[in-house]
Amino acid sequence: MVTRVAVMDRDVCIERRCGYVCAKVCPPNRMGEECIVVEKDGIYPVFSEELCIGCGLCVKKCPVTCISIINVAQELSDPVFQYGINTFRLYGLPLPLEGAVSLIGKNGIGKTSAIKLLSRQVKPNFAVFGKEWTDEEVMAKLAIEARRYFAKTKEGLKLSVKPQHIDRVRDAFKGTAEELLGSVSGSRARLQEVAKLFRIEDILNRKLDQLSGGELQKVSIAASYMKDSDIYYFDEVTNYLDIEERLRMAVIIKELAEKKSVMMAEHDLTFLDYVSNYVYILYGDENVYGVVSGVKNVRVGINEYIGGYLKDENVRFREYEIGFSKHSEGEIKAATLIKYGALKKEFGGSSGFRFTSDPGQIKKGEILGLVGKNALGKSLFVKMLAGNEKADEGEGLGFKVSYKPQYITAENVVVSELFAGKDLAMGIFEDCKRKLNITMLMDKELTQLSGGELQRVALTLALSQKADVYLLDEPSAFLDIEQRFEFASLLRRVISENEKCAFVVDHDIVFIDAIANRLIVFDGKSSAHGHASAPLNKRSGMNGFLKVAGITMRRDKDSARPRINKPGSQLDAEQKAAGEYFYYDRAAEEK
After folding, report:
1. pLDDT tens digits, residue range 127-177?
2. 3-state secondary structure at position 62
3. Which of 2, 222, 239, 402 has the most neighbouring CB atoms within 10 Å?
């Protein structure tokens, strides 16, 4: 049996201006059926999934590509939740377990929707609209395990939720970080204990609108952690955090999961792998529908997600496997493209931030990864190279650059207009549109886009512009796992084939490992002084960087994906003793 799903993006539909082409070309409509009709009290077409024959003519003829017709080659029951007629729907529900369980899947596939359902922010509607569902009616429709869970929440099960969009915390609460934490702490002693644990004591007296993204993220996690709850939901916790902060959050959440139930949605594979006991995989079609798999052991589940095939369900949800090389990207033999000098910059005299960097060079076809803790000057270094920030000593690159900043501002402009008039390499532009899936976004305004969509548009613009040097500040932020690897492959190919070069700042160590030939390592004291090294070979750079962070890593024996060793484990101790923090090869060492 085939389940047919029809979804229309009403933010893009141009309404009457196209003359309802979709309805005119629909074969069932031309035979007298009412497969695509205009709502009586509205202006948008409505699609009948029962009458649709799946021909795809409406999708092909739509002038703004706002229609998706998906034929799902598996039998699905009614959705647990659907946002409205011809909108995204979710099939099945993940459920909290003892310990930590994580949700893995693309953006727009239902992870946040599932958390909202489980935390009772929205109520299951089973794709029936215009009906006020009573709790009794909802319980009767749910599977027995879900029924037990919702019965417990009704009986007083306490829930804590860290939202995906932390900017909304800033919008909802206008006070200081201390006032926010004080509203949920229960006592002054508890507040001070948690502030010390999360290392946010120095920012307690600052208002939320004065905090950086990383600081606001830590305060948001701390506020959720502080609540006395039975189940904790964390929706994307690593955005804006550096690798050391990510490990600290991972340790805190993992210890919490030893006492309480934790559910987490996350895209950083090493973080997710370290924290979780179990995973649910969500698959389907972005912004169209999502299906929740059965629960799986964390290692098995991640490897099945990477492979694109669910063994127990006998479902292939991706045509390709996400590949990990058994050897990380290494130094290339090529001619030097650019030499750059030492840079210095100071802010606010003796009490302000001071930055210095060593001189270096970058080769044709090379990508340099910039790694280090937050507030050591990585973004400042890139801005000075781009010429967007003037150095006190030293000069920018002096070459034609394409710069993607850390924070992207959404303006009141249509996406297609953003690219108009730019000096683009059209072949790369078309490749980016396809690989980063932005064709469906071209007729939307930037202000309508999610964080991940906005990031994909910004990356497409940066990579498509004709330049000698590409400067990318945190390109993986807000991208899901698949998008990160698509972009990594795209970036490597563009830089290599065109003999250009790139500087890339990022905190996802798997992403950096996949793209970087050499590393620039930043050290110093956060917010006080920072220093950038000359480019180092990958092994030396990663060993130095991970040693400061106190992390050792290994590769999974089946998928070769990077994994963080448990602190204090035998392998962790062995690698630290050998001074090999990055993918220690025991067999090679013994030889």
Report:
1. 999 888 999 999 999 999 999 999 999 999 999 999 998 888 888 888 999
2. coil
3. 222
User: How confident is the model over 178-195, as pLDDT tens digits?
Assistant: 999 999 887 899 999 999
Q: For residue 231, which amino acid is it? A: I
What tokens does 9 get?
């993006």
- In 3D space, the residue among 420, 425, 381 whose CA is nearest the CA of residue 403 turns out to be 381
Most distant CA pair in the chain, distance: 80
Q: Among 82, 558, 553, 487, which Cα is nearest to 284's?
A: 82
Query: What are the residue ranges of CATH 3.40.50.300 in the chain?
Result: 85-316, 336-536
CATH pick for 336-536 out of 3.30.390.10, 3.40.50.11540, 3.40.50.300, 2.60.40.10: 3.40.50.300
Tell me which amino acid residue 198 is. F
In angstroms, the CA 405 to CA 412 distance is 18
Q: How many CA atoms lie within 13 A of 117 on its CB side?
A: 26
- DSSP letter at 414 equals B
Beta partners for residue 346, in sequence order: 354
As a CATH number, domain 3-72 is 3.30.70.20
Q: Is 10 helix (H, G, I), strand (E, B) or coil?
A: coil
The fold of 85-316 is Rossmann fold (3.40.50)
